[in-house]
Amino acid sequence: MNREQIIISPIGIIHTPHNNISNMPIKTMAAKGIRGLIELYSELEGFSHMTLLHHFHKILGLI
What counts of helices (H) and strands (E) characterise the chain? Predict the structure, then answer.
């Protein structure tokens, strides 16, 4: 089987009030009313639309 790598380069960062794994909601319904901020890096200027994909980089601590 030929497996190709997928390289992900961040285009920004998502800021939320969650500062540790124990208070992070697993489902979006559990985060109802909690606000966050998406900060995009400047090299993305000029785009009118974007699809946001996120990587739960801290989830490995729960497995």
Answer: 0, 2
Contact between 40 and 12 under an 8 Å Cβ cutoff? The reply is yes
pLDDT tens per residue across span 3-58: 888 887 888 888 888 877 777 777 777 788 888 898 888 777 777 887 777 776 66
How far apart (Å, rounded) are the C-alpha atoms in residues 29 and 48? 28
- For the chain, give every domain's residue range: 12-62
Tokens standing for residue 25: 């909601």
**CB-neighbour burial class of residue 21 (10 A; exposed 0-12, middle 13-18, buried 19+):** exposed
Angle at 30 between CA 24 and CA 31, to 5 degrees: 65
Nearby residues of 29 by Cβ (< 8 Å), 6 or more positions away:
none
Residue 45 is classified by DSSP as T
